[in-house]
């Protein structure tokens, strides 16, 4: 059975389909999300909760932004931190650190009721001094991938998808799904 990708985030769905190169089935359902900085813990928990509701194989994704000067915080809690502070204040808070170094990590969990498989993607980078680019997709406007001088939000979607942590994780998922056919 083809898994169903559980997300209410249209940007994540678009990126998943662009990266995978095919239309993965998709559904929006309400599931509880544990509060943890660890993306893998959150993804596994969400996959189990989604499977419990649907009784069919599911794919869930969670992404975190880890700021090294904060010991990796906020990680998977980045949504709550940016909603509370906003992107400009988030950049100013990072001014307190000796370094703006950060990394972004995506964990995708596939669960079929018996077997849990996780696929991670990782990209190093830094937090910009001010938000740059559109802020219509989470914290893309404050993350500068290593080797670039622009944020994810300033990149064309195909450029971002060619280097992102989500690309790495979804590519691994795609290979896994192809091996099961």
- Specify the oligomeric state: single chain
Runs with pLDDT <50, length 5+? none
Estimated helix fraction? 25-40%
CATH top-level class:
Alpha Beta
Quickly give the CATH architecture: Alpha-Beta Complex
SS field, number of helical segments: 6
Structural class: alpha/beta
Q: Estimate the mean pLDDT confidence.
A: 94
Give an overview of the whole structure:
This protein has 181 residues and is an alpha/beta fold. It has one domain (4-179): Maf protein (Alpha-Beta Complex). It has helices at residues 10-20, 39-54, 78-85, 87-94, 157-163, 165-179; strands spanning 4-6, 25-27, 58-67, 74-75, 101-111, 116-127, 143-145. Strands 1, 2, 3, 4, 5, 6 and 7 form a seven-stranded mixed sheet that branches. The radius of gyration is 16 Å and the shape is globular. It starts with a strand and ends with a helix.
Task: Quickly list its features.
24% strand; Maf protein; alpha/beta; 181 residues; 6 helices
Condensed summary:
With 181 residues, the chain is an alpha/beta fold. It is built from 6 helices and 7 strands, in the order βαβαββααβββαα. Helix content is 36%, strand content 24%.
Element layout with pairings:
Blueprint (H helix, E strand, L loop, with lengths): L3 E3 L3 H11 L4 E3 L11 H16 L3 E10 L6 E2 L2 H8 L1 H8 L6 E11 L4 E12 L15 E3 L11 H7 L1 H15 L2
Parallel strand pairs: 1-2, 1-3
Antiparallel strand pairs: 3-4, 3-5, 5-6, 6-7
Helix pairs in contact: 1-6, 3-4
